[in-house]
Amino acid sequence: MAINVTVLRVFTDHDGSYGNPLGVIETREVDPAERQRIAHELGYSETVFVTAPDPGTTSAHAHIYTPTTELPFAGHPTVGTSWWLKDRGTPVKTLQVPAGIVQVGYNGDLTSVAARADWAPDFSLYELNSVDELMAADPDDYTDSVEHYLWTWLDEPAGTIRSRMFAPHLGIREDEATGAAAVRITEYLSRDLTIVQGQGSIIETTWSPDGWVKVAGRVVDDGTRQID
Domain 3-106+217-227 is in which class? Predict the structure, then answer.
């Protein structure tokens, strides 16, 4: 039986361009043993399997997979899932993932999640001197088994950075927009940020000194595809 996959783009710019593709599948459609195979076949940087909230409740459950492994937390899947739940008429206040309970917020066209900074992987952070140097970086030069986050200031007083992320060991040569990395760099710099990543995706973050980071962005629905 064919499985329905909603395809979203998460962290688009103001015009709905760019953004990181995300596959969203209801858990009732898939045997848990098939999740990794499906995520691999879809080929998105992440695919999320969602259990919608029970009637009268405001919390949902999600499991997040890259093409090669399950993740305890990731940013663009949790933002995308939260938006998808609201779009289908079941907005939530929390989203439960293996790492813990994510707080969800809706504000105009922005959907946000708040997560603990220590839920994010220990990205190798590289501050580069210019956008030209950043854009010249080759993902094939970053092949060891860690996530690599390269960044440079666009406007330091305004808190705007440009970034790229490579994680080939997770089956992600380059990620278009990475919420978990946004959490990590926000905690590292200890300030609110506007992050322009990849081709032009936009992530907004809010830093809290108590170890929480809010990640917000826009989401576009690109329709449904099917997979066996």
Answer: alpha beta
Cα(206)–Cα(173) distance, rounded to whole angstroms?
A: 27
Instruction: Give the integer Cα–Cα distance in Å for 212 and 194.
Output: 17
Helix (H) or strand (E) holding 86: helix 75-87
- Which residues are CB-contacts of 156 (< 8 A; sequence separation ≥ 6)? none
Taking the C-alpha atoms of residue 114 and residue 132, their distance in angstroms, rounded to an integer, is: 32
The span from the CA of 72 to the CA of 57, in Å, is: 23
For the chain, the 3-state helix, strand and coil shares in percent, each to the nearest 5, are 25, 45, 30
The residue to which tokens 């066996």 are assigned: 228
Question: Per-domain residue ranges for the chain?
Answer: 3-106+217-227, 119-215
Rounded Cα gap, residues 81 and 77, in angstroms? 6
Residues belonging to the active site: 46
Structural fold of domain 119-215: Diaminopimelate Epimerase; Chain A, domain 1 (3.10.310)
d(CA 18, CA 11): 8
- State the CB neighbour count (10 A cutoff) for residue 32: 9
What does pTM read for this prediction?
0.95
* Average pLDDT per 10 consecutive residues for the chain, totaling 228 residues: 93 98 95 95 96 93 96 97 97 97 97 95 95 96 90 98 93 94 98 98 97 97 93
